[in-house]
């Protein structure tokens, strides 16, 4: 019927999903790859001008510019919908759509028409109002500064600080390594090693040790990997002295391993130093193991486990267990090795040493991959430089489409460059030409950040656009049913939106729109010519249509006053609403119809279980009986395919949905969250929201969501060198092709994890390069490409992989994999998969050293992974995977799962192992300078033993604060902080600043903590010792090292792992 | 004569089924090589999934009513698998997860293809057999 016409005129008019062409233009030759024959030449992309044409021809019906966006200027088309949408005005002729009505939003006339009643008035009452001279918005021509910060050419200082041979005097102090019993075993197995001996024969003192050492190797040839091309280097600086009980971790600071990698991984850009270092490093690089202290130095850390069999004493000194009290420690040696790599805040590999063979991969039981946070916040002064190639076009490899980066090499006196990823020789465009100096470096290296920095941002020329860059667009979909009104959510949301209107990114181009819904859908006409917004109610949920398709989404700066009027009146309009229904699905569809022209960000505020129309959800609830059965996981995945389909459609039209779920009852977060998951959005969950308590949290997080720098209509691809391939991706996005992530919106709080696999059985290259490219539209309407490049050495040895492992990235990948597993298997199985991988990995590691060193009943692990067992335990106890039925509410579990799937590494680590600090001493002391902050932040182990009943503690996991009041805490402090409430039930007390020094200090302290991590607002919960069940819920359950409710404590955990490692060892 | 016509009918139905499955495989392969986008691929495949299921059901039914119960037995595992997928509502391709399921979906269809080819040869054999019998 005609009812569909107004929609049809607007929605599907974009013939093909335009982003695909954008996709293609990133790497058009993807098409040509499978074709080998001469036919392929038709598609083979030729230099820039033609690149634009190829994607179009291949991606099918992408029309030309105007056809893609028929509605770029809404005003031009205002008349069409109504001429075609007959039924809207003449509604009495269509009995199936009787309920369409329009009214103005003066609060006094705020009467809801009966949902199925006849139209109360004519089509639209408009208040004649003076036409505001609308300011024509012209996107300012963005010319980014061409002058880039000046970079001094990276020097490679570490070359001189390579591993030194251990001092000879250690020879005298080596008691334990000399007891090598038998020396003469077939030395032919030892064949790959001869260069060792020859290389150190010049060194005087070493000769002494040679005999011993060699025999040590010969004695245990079986344990040497057969293909050793490089000896296991030994940390020379970090001598971990062998103690009886355990190994004190090496001194903090730069990880000592500076390593032989620079020998074979010498970046090509520094050819002058390359050969030189090669010469220099050879003796030392292969030197470490030949030092006299070979037997003395152990390449691993260890813990003594299990003293006497059968005794109760575990034999583990709990104090000796490694704890990540300093938070996230990034692997530093790697960054030193490749100074031109992208910073670790953008991309982290689970191990910086890429295995060279399939067999090696299969022995590395931990995940092999990367965690990428393409828009991570950079500290001041380290911002990503912007490069504008202007008319030259972006320099990319012809074949693999790699962007020019610091690791490409220039040859043929600067006329050609060799792609570091596919090794193709490309021509240097004349405009980009610069002569090379004697060492093969370009003369203009210093002026070109793209040749000296791992992270750069290119300004994309028009070839990278399928349509004009979209404006920033925010659309609000607000539930106004009774529970939303009662909880005060509407009030807070409206206030926050109003306060953020000035700070929305995108300056004068920003667009905004609103829909509210209960059992009907309310549209708001906020055209700039009105003084008061107009509300239109549609109650036909089965056949959704949009009245006035053009005035529902308006330019914010033009309609500012109307928008403000609307936001102001929203809370009062619905304050007496008693409607309990929620037509969420139809409202989503309506929002989709309005937004599909442009894309943008959809913010959904959902308060009750969707109960009407398409996408209604049942109260599935949490059934204890399904736990432990094969059906357990079904409650954690969306039930209705509607939401998945909706999410897919959203992504197709560049809409990103951020879901704010508030509820005191079951809200089926599992279904709602899927909207955020596949659209690059984020899920915020506020269980039993009460504005009195959680107002600040919602306000802060919504404000951050609205104002943080966001990249729009983005696609991300990660390229890597020959022989390796990214196979699976984990996070909030939708895959658009096998390796292209569609991200309608990205910001600094999103990270994406991916797993790597080897395509060939053997990697022949010495270095593997990775390049992350994120093509996006910035808020000011500029198309940009952010490129992060990273090099990693290829190794042939398992020990090296372990040495270069990055706990943070591993934990991030492990937790994402486990959460994904929990969506199709039992929680138990998801947890066990982590344990299994951990045990296998440590067992493999043990096998490397078990015979060579007498490890006995010690548990050994690489220094780089010393925190991994604890983090694995923390994943076990994390909200998405903890326990079973009664331990976590189903909604909370799902929400935490969705959150973790998007969390950057450092925030995840903080969530898994929160900070616990004692603060009462700081509060009592006289006011000191702020640099005192570091001192008081001395994190304590997360165990109940850290809590002194005379103290006041702050627990911070990045999402909330818990302040724990000891029983014996001086009442003085409590009174100062809480006023007269200090004896009552703490659940009702909220912390606010009081007029005394101590209270101010505490608030200042909390403020400082919050500023460290602004992505979420840490709401403060007060807990008194012994106050159950609050203490148990907020505090004790989160002390990951303690044994809580059937879950192991840290000591037991280590023992369990150790036992399992030794089985079949 | 009637028997031969029946076998001829089965033969064409099987050819039709083969075409449907090959079409789905082609869509998946195109997707893998990035010739089409996941939305198109999923909608194209989903369009033909129910026809495929129904045709297969009809084929089984026809086998049964024409008294070729051995052939019907051969067709039943396939039918059972389809019905089971349908009952669990897993028969359609999920566009959001299509890339993660690509390998499995391809394998599934390749297996179906092999099975159909096997049935086709059986039918062909019976077709010729009955034709020769008619001749005598």
Category from helices, strands and their pairing of chain B: mainly alpha
Which percent range fits the helix content of chain B? over 70%
Average pLDDT confidence of chain A is 74
| Contiguous uncertain segments of 5+ residues of chain A | 1-296, 307-312
What gyration radius of chain A follows from the Cα positions, in whole Å? Answer: 32 Å
- Give me the oligomer status: heterodimer
Pair with the most extensive interface? A-B, 22 and 18 residues
Structural class of chain A: alpha+beta
Shape of chain B: elongated
Mean pLDDT of chain B, as a whole number?
Answer: 91
- Quickly count the helices of chain B: 4
Total number of strands of chain B: 0
CA radius of gyration of chain B:
17 Å
Task: Describe the overall structure.
Chain A is α+β, with helices and mostly antiparallel strands. Helix content of chain A is about 30%, strand content about 15%. In chain A, the strands form six sheets. In chain A, strands 1, 11, 12, 13, 14, 15, 16, 17 and 18 form a nine-stranded mixed β-sheet that branches. In chain A, strands 4, 6, 10, 19, 21, 22, 24 and 25 form an eight-stranded mixed β-sheet that branches. Chain A has a four-stranded antiparallel β-sheet with strand order 3-5-23-20, covered by helices on one side. The mean pLDDT of chain B is about 90. Chain B is mostly helical and about 140 residues long. The relative contact order of chain B is 0.17. The interface of A and B includes residues 30, 58, 641, 645 and 648 of A.
